[in-house]
Hints:
17 helices; 326 residues; single chain; globular; mainly alpha
Amino acid sequence: MSQIRRFLRSTKIQIxxxxxxKVFKRYLDFIGKxxxxxxxxxxxxxxxxxxxxxxxxxxxxxxxxFARVARLARLSENGSLQHLTRKEIEIYDxxxxxxxxxxxxxxxxxxxxxxxxxxxxxxxxxxxxxxxxFWSLQQRIDFAVQLQRKRLLHYKPLFRCLQARVDSISDxxxxxxxxxxxxxxxxxxxxxxxxxxxxxxxxxDRPFHLNLLWPSHKNNLLRVHGLSPMFGFRRRARLTDKAYxxxxxxxxxxxxxxxxxxxxxxxxxxxxxxxxxVNMRTxxxxxxxAQWSHVASNVDESSYSLLLHCPVxxxxxxxxxxxxxx
Length: 326
């Protein structure tokens, strides 16, 4: 009798599970058909709906991940990021800016009737009002290229700032090495990573330490990295923060290997460091990032300025950059 009871109980459970699956499947089928009807009758509205629904899910997921990573950073000694992965450091650096950028849209949307205005505006001006979570893959590339084109306009002025301080270099060997680097850049070439590292003392002391740069030099350096001078507000501190996060990511690249990155991650890494990766081969992006990481591994807190000048030192004459401004 007990075996019969167990058999009947298991049969009832199977029947209930099967019934639940059927009900759930019918519900999903209904939702799918309902979305198809809406898609046919209101295609533009559904497109906007999908942009915000999918984008918000991705954004919310990264915000939760940021909170987790922030706790790990607080628990580490002196807030060090060395124990974090590359992706965790990228989230820790990027998400606070994303939150600030989309806050107006997220705060206004719940208010009565505002969603009829906010959603269309955000959809029409995604680069200004939304973060990358809400962009399509093509928009992410297009917006990154637009930003890179603006940054490239300040490469030559930054190069001129470096040229203007050559005569103030007292050490003859360092001055000769640095002049050779500038000559290569001016002749359409790039210095080797070892040549760049050889002039590191110039960027950890006079004349190119962050504390000793002229205001115009700092402004160009900020714009090369996609930052606004903001009327001189916290220029050195923001440059230091930028160099710190880039270097921590570079060290993570060296630990994890650049070859483990996806194509989109490689492109994002190149854009962040001042190189237009559009139409570049994967192996060329990997090689360029390896050169950058080699310099970064030889930089410390006192020579952050050298890393910040690498977009010019390693990317001034890159063909993919020249295409955008010539």
